[in-house]
Amino acid sequence: MSERAVRTGSAKENELKPEIERHYPVDTNRQTIFGHSLGGLFVLTALFTKPCAFQTYIAGSPSIYWNERSLLAMERAFEAQLTGDRPVRLQMTIGELENAAGSFDGFRTEAMASRLSALGSSRLSVEFKEFRDESHISVLPVLVSQGIRFAMKNPL
Known about the structure:
By secondary structure, this protein is α/β, with parallel strands linked by helices. 46% of the residues lie in helices and 17% in strands. The chain has one domain: 3-Layer(aba) Sandwich (Rossmann fold), CATH 3.40.50.
């Protein structure tokens, strides 16, 4: 994602969260951000640039290749961003058939989840799931279902 997108995301968070809190009861200790495809890329960008903004991040079939894979540079700088007093949970998912389609983002997603798990940080819990017989589009219903279950688990 571009620098502009990162700034826009921060601005939206600063506008959107207070607006939601004005209208609905919100547990500020259990907030989740969820996205699929480019939305999954946005979720990872949010995690890598502002990991304390949410407690749970769900990135489904993230478009890691986007913008010449600039997300990978953010990932390399991420460990230094893991500060604060609350642990963060991340779920990364793909459909099994995504790699067969030739995008190889599924391989990249699994590899990134593995690298993030290898950080061994007590501040970050990573779960990777591959949904059998699902493609980039057909994965959406199961991703939503499993994502909600992941978000509703007891926090760390």
